[in-house]
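Example for tutorial group B:
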C-alpha cells in the first residue's frame, strides 16, 4: 500500500465547484464551518485518507490557520490520516456492543482477515479500526464498513459479509436478523 504523502493536493474541478457551493452556505465570516464537509470531500477524492497536503489545501480554501485544520482532522475518527484498505471496517467497542458480543465480532474479523485492529490486509482490501460508539446501540453489536452500517451481528453474519466483500459482492446492509430500528427482531417492517 502506498502511504507516501503527496507534495500537493487540489480538488478536481467538480469537487472545487462543490466546495464553493458548500462554503457559500455559511454566513460571511463563518466559512470555517465548512471544514468538516470539505475535509470529507478531500478524503473521498484521495482514496479514503487525508494526506497533509489536503489538510493544508482545505485550510487555505477556508482562510484558517493550518493548525486548526489539523486539529479537526486529527480529532474526528471519521478522518484517516494514513492509507486504509478499500473496505474500512470500524468495530464499535463501547459497552452495548461489548455486552452483546462485540468481542466475538472483533475476533471473527481478525481471524478471517489475518490482521489485528489498526492493520490492513497485505492486498490492501481490508483495514480494521476500533472506534467508540457508532450510534446504533439498539441493534448491537454493530460495525460500519465504509459508509454502510451492519447491525445485529453474529460471527456467522460477519463471515458472510466479509466473504461477500472479498468476492466483490455487496452484502446486505443494516440488520442481519431482520430487526427494524428498536422493534422486536424479525417483526419490524
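The residue assignment follows.
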Amino acid at each position: 500500500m502506498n502511504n507516501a504523502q503527496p507534495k500537493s493536493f487540489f480538488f478536481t474541478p467538480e469537487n472545487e465547484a462543490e466546495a464553493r457551493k458548500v462554503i457559500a452556505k455559511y454566513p460571511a465570516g463563518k466559512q470555517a464551518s465548512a471544514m468538516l464537509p470539505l475535509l470529507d470531500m478531500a478524503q473521498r477524492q484521495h482514496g479514503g485518507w487525508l494526506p497533509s497536503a489536503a489538510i493544508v489545501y482545505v485550510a487555505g480554501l477556508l482562510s484558517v490557520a493550518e493548525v486548526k485544520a489539523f486539529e479537526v482532522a486529527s480529532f474526528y475518527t471519521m478522518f484517516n490520516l494514513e492509507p486504509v484498505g478499500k473496505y474500512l471496517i470500524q468495530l464499535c467497542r463501547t459497552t452495548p456492543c461489548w455486552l452483546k458480543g462485540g468481542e466475538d465480532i472483533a475476533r471473527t474479523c481478525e481471524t478471517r482477515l489475518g490482521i489485528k485492529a489498526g492493520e490492513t490486509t497485505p492486498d490492501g482490501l481490508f483495514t480494521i479500526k476500533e472506534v467508540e460508539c457508532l450510534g446504533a446501540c439498539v441493534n448491537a453489536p454493530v460495525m460500519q464498513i465504509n459508509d454502510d452500517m451492519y447491525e445485529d451481528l453474529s460471527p456467522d453474519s460477519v463471515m458472510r459479509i466479509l466473504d461477500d466483500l472479498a468476492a466483490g459482492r455487496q452484502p446486505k446492509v443494516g440488520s442481519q436478523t431482520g430487526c427494524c430500528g428498536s422493534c422486536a427482531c424479525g417483526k419490524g417492517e
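DSSP finds seven helices and five strands in the chain. Compare this with the pattern of hydrophobic and polar residues in the output above.
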